[in-house]
Structure formats: structure tokens, C-alpha cells
Amino acid sequence: MQKIVLLVAALAISPWHARAQAPAPSTQRANTRFEQLGPILPTPNTFRTASGAPGKDYFQNRADYDIKATLDDINQKITASETIIYHNNSTDVLPFIWLQLDQNLFRPDVIGRTSQTNSISAEQGASLQQINPNGALIGKDYGHKITSVRDQTGKPIKYTINQTMMRIDLPQPVSPGKSVTFSIDWNFKIVDVKSVGARGGYEFFPKDGNYIYEIAQWFPRLCAYNDVNGWQNKQFLGRGEFTLIFGNYKVALTVPSDHIVGATGELQNPAQVLTATQQKRWNEAKGKGDKPGENPVLIVTQAEAEAAEKAGGANGKPTGTKTWIYKADNVRDFSFASSRKFIWDALQPNVEGKRVWAMSLYPKEANPLWGQYSTRLIAHTLTSYSRRTIAYPYPVAYSVHGPVGGMEYPMISFNGARPEPDGTYSVGTKNFLISVVIHEVGHNFFPMIVNSDERQWSWMDEGLNSFLEGLACLEWDANFPAHGIDPQYIVPYMQLDSTRQVPIMSSSDNIPGNTFGPNAYTKPATALNILRETVMGRDLFDYAFKEYARRWAFKSPEPADFFRTLEDASGVDLDWFWKGWFYGVQPVDQSLVKVDWFQTNSQNPEITKGEARAAAQRKLNTISKQRDALSKDETVVAQDSSMRDFYNRYDPYAVTDEDRKKYQDYLASLTAEERVLAEAGTNFYTLSLKNKGGIPMPVIVRMEFEDGTDSVARFPAEIWRFNDASIKKVIATNKKVKQWTLDPFYEIADINTEDNTFPPVAQPTRFQLFKQQQRGGAAGPNPMQQQRQPSPAKQGSGKN
Ligand SMILES: [Zn+2]
Questions:
Q1: 54 CA to centre of ligand 1 in angstroms
Q2: What are phi and psi of 616, to 5 degrees?
């Protein structure tokens, strides 16, 4: 009894709730593709708001470092000490803190190594590398050697190393709002990049006996502690990069006295480490007065670098050291490069009203490419990215050439792309240089400034950065093959069986190696380009993307913060897009099944009866009549008029007075607007469309008219919201359409364009009569080299 009363009360105050209590059986299913992400995203809270911005309780901890390190060029070893001040800005008491020991990835016993799988094939054989992928690590004694962890008073602190992570058990827990200071001494053997595959290490040049050092992930670094993961202390497996926190750095690097150094931060003691000539050139590189120079100035020339190589290489090492001191504020990491082989050039472009040092370090082996392009590319990157995100906040940006193919750190990046020993290079090498410098320098913005969790989400820095890289490459050269953002080029990946793809929203270390490139880089980058060009439009997208950078500069966003901000700042519901492109593995495949053509029946008897007569006459001339021996003048009826009556004279298609009256009555029943339409002879085309792939996408269709002109109609993805598999759409046009084409500009990554035309247009499949042999390496043919050969017939062909 009481129950019924309660129910009635509930009905009275909440009819909505009441409806839910008695669901009407329905066979209709809401199209979930356009339902909101809802519980797929984390619940907004006071740390991170529903609009995608940092909330009122957002916090991040901070670590300031004072590091002293010595580079041993004889033994390829770093010996260093650091004092860290760790600031606990959380509301939690922390009894211990975690640090990252990335050099331990080069120990053969860590999970990143022992979890590798491999196999041997009897048919194909197996290389030593396949049989023992970690062979290069055995007996090398690589890894962080921690020699001391002490508190502020010098008392040892207990610590535990778990593979690539180190836990320090604080003597006293660090309270909210408080700091803790401690020091660590360590050393490690620098890895040979080429033999172990690493993001930093050395390269030895046997011809001159010298080394280039690119030193990264080299000091014990604080893990992030935040509102999402607590401690982000997931092991470093080699793939998922670095989840780091901001801080101020003071770093003193002691290196051989003839080395040239570049690092995160500003050099504090040029007078102690640079010659008078180098300092003079340094000042020249700033330009004249307020005007930046146009071309980089060489601070160390190639001749000087070659002289240093000869003096310090196999023929005898220099005596003495120099200490280069750097300061960097608000950075999440610190890295450096050092070598006597370095040529050094510098330019100080104006970036959003502020002068920034753009500088490159490279050996003679990198010329002529590097001297011509590297520093100018840095300046271009800072300008292009600053416009689309926030103004580059740091004073310096380096691009360094050494053994590492492409890796980013704050204010410094290591980039490959080396010409042939004879100074020629393929177009592939040149384009790689352009894209890799833009990409790695561009990483200053994502993740060095917009500090996403790289260990968890590769796409948040690689995808966003690859997108901006593509735009910057096209601003560098309109003909640049920016395939990383072009929808056509993600098609082969999206054509793969869904079991061979993983969603973009997959943790970095769980993405199979062969899909990592598309997954972390090109698919998200292409998706963003599609959002900008096809879904949102440039204005709405650019504003929202910039807003994301503004909100999260020097903070740590999560995927939901990105998804929410883009919608929040644009007013465009994109949940369906995130579902399709970021959470799913289905492709885009639209199909134009057929087009039905309609015209209004004008009811005008002059027209309708005339058309009926023409249609009837077309059927009269049968094949039998054509073959009959008698001509129609020789039939009985033709020859004998007495055999004719009313029906021989009757014309059923003649317009009668009654027809005319009926037509006038019809016209009188129409409004003026209806009358215009009825008389205009408009063509109505009903397009039957299928979404075969899965991801609902905007429908873009080109009409080529009979008169040779054309027109493009665009419909939003929501056109699929009632039926995500099959829809019809009527298009009215005064002109007659002779050809229909879906996605005419290849902008939605449709994996099968053969069913995109109506009437269908056959495309020949071309085959080669004789199979041609493959030529050229990974970087492609090098016609520059061939042009130096005497045979003019072969010039520029790229094949020999
Ligand atoms: Zn990258």
C-alpha cells in the first residue's frame, strides 16, 4: 500500500522518471554512433572540468635540479651528481617519491628486454639480432650506477631500485605545500646508439677517431604525481616516452676543452668557454640593431671543426676540460650534445615579437644539407607553431646532428638525415631533414610545453605534433609531400583488417610495433586535418586548437581534456568523431549505390500528352514491322477506305478542351511558389548512400552537369544520425547531372573509392608486362649522384 503511494508521488513530481519505470517495448535502436561519449570519458571533477580546462584544484608537483656532470671522452662515461628540490603541491602526504632511471633500459634483465618476443623460421633463416635481440647489451655493464642518495644534511637515504624506477623512502614524509631536498650521485656508461638502438648515446667516427655525444635520459628524474595516476611509475619499456614535471635547472657540464656543447637552456658563461672570435660571431648572429639576420652565422666553421678533429682525434687527445654552465627555467627535462666535430651556426629570428636563438650543431659529414637548411628550419618551425599554439616561451632552440634519427628534448633535438660521403643526397634524405627538424623542434610545443603523459598516450604529443609538422612543411614548400596529414595516405592502414589495428586510444607500450607509426603519428594527425578541413572548418578548429594549447601550456592534459576543449571552444559536437577515429578501428567507406532521377509532372496536357505520344511511337517500329514484306501503304485498311472507322482517325494523344480545363483547375489549386516549381522542370535526384566502413563522415558529392560546369554539395556527418548504414538524400538542381562523385577531393580517407561514382566509372587496373627490379635504398634513388657521372643519357632518370 505504502509502495503505491510512493510511486504515485514519484509520478507526480517526475514524469520523466515515471516514463523510465514503464518502458514501452521498442524495436527502434538509437544510433549509438551519435550518442555522447558519456562514461567512456572520466567524470569531470575539480581538478579537470567538464569543459576540458584545468579545474580549480588542478595541481602539479615540481622539481628543481642543480646538476654537475663530467663527460669522459676516453671511456664514454658520464659521472654526475644532482641536488633536487621537490615541491609537493598536491593535497596528499607523500612518504616516498619515485624517480626514473632510464639508462637501466640497457640492462638485459629489465622487462623492456625480457618481454620481447622472437622466433626462428626454417624457410627464411634468422639473423643473430633475431635470435638474440639484446646481444649488444650483454657484458656491456650499461645502466645507471647509483653511488649515493643523501638528504640535505648529507645523511644517506634508503632507496630501492625496481628496474627503470627508483623509490626514495623519505626520512620524513613530505607534506602538502612543502618541499624536500636530496642529492644523488651516479654514473653510467654511454651507449653506442647504432649498436643498441637508443634515443641518446654516442657515435664513433673511425675515420678521424672522434665521437659525437647526444646525451639524454641521463639523470635520475622525478616521476609525475598527479590527480589521474597518483605516481606515474609505469616501467620504461623503450616505447612509451616520458611523463615528467616542470622545474628550473642549473647544469654544469665539464667536457674536453676542445668540445663544443649545446644543451637545454641558455649558456651562462660564454666568456669562459668561447674564444674571442666565437663571441664576436655570436654577437654578429644577433643581426644588426633591431633587425634579425636573414642567414645563420657560423660561430664555428667547418674548417675549424675539421682542425679540431685532427688535433683531438686518433692523433692524440687534448688535455684539460672546460665547464659549460646552463640555466633553463620551466622545463620538464634536460639534454645536451657535445663533440669536437661540431660546426655551429646561429640565427636569432623574431618569433611573435621576441628574439629566440635558433642554432644547429653538426659535423662535416652533415654538410652541405645541414649548413643550408637546419637553422632556417628551426626558425620556420618556431614561427609556424607559435602562430597556431602559444608564442615560443624559451630563449633557445637547437637542432643537432649525430647518431640519433630524431628525438626531442626541451630546447634541443637530435636529428638524422646525413648526405652521402660525397655530399650528394636523395630527395628522400632532403625531405627527411626538412620533416624531422620541423617535427623534433616542433615537439617543444607538444609535449615539452603542453606536457601530456607520453608513457600512456603517444598520440597526444606525436599526433598533435605530426599534424602541426604537416602544416609547417606545406608552409615551407607548397610541393612538400606532407603525406602524414593527407587523408589519402592513411587509407592503406585503415584498409587493414580490424584485427591488425588497435585504437588510437591505446597505451603506448601496447601498440604493436608495425602499427605504431600510423597509430601514434599519422592517423591522429590526419584525423585532426580532417576535423580542420572537412568537419569543423578552419576558423572553428584553429581557435579551439589554440585554446587547448593556451589552457594546457605548462600543465599536463589528458585525452579527455583535449576532446572536451575542442568541443567547448568550437560549439561542434565531436563525440561521434572521437568514437570513430580515436576509440575505434573501423574505416571510412562510403558508397554511392545509385541515383534516381525525378522531375515534377507539370500536368500540362500539351507536355504530358506529347511525351506520351513520343513514348508510344518509340515502341511502334518493331523488328517484325521492319521485316514485313508489305509496306504499310499496301495493307487492306490502307488501300480500302471502307474498312476504316472512327478509331482509324482517333488520336488519343490530342489535347482536348477537357484536358485544358483540368489543367487550369490544377493550376488554380497551387500557390504561386508551387506553381513556379511545377513549371520550372527542376531535376530531383535521390541519392542512395551506404556507410559500409563504419565511421560516419560528412557526405561530400560533386555534380558534373551536362553543360560542362560542376558544383559540390556538402552534408554534415549527422546526416547518418537516424541510420548509420543506409540513407537517401534528395538534391534538386535545374541542370541535368551527368556524373556524380562522392568525396571528390579525397578528404575523408574513404578506403574504397571505386563505389563512389554514379554512373560507375571503370578504372583500369594497370599491369606491368615485365616485372621491374627494385632499385634504391630506404632514402630512394639519388639522382644528384648520377648527375655527376659522365653518361648524359642517364641524367635525372633515377634508374640505372
Ligand atoms: Zn615525435
A1: 25
A2: -65, -40
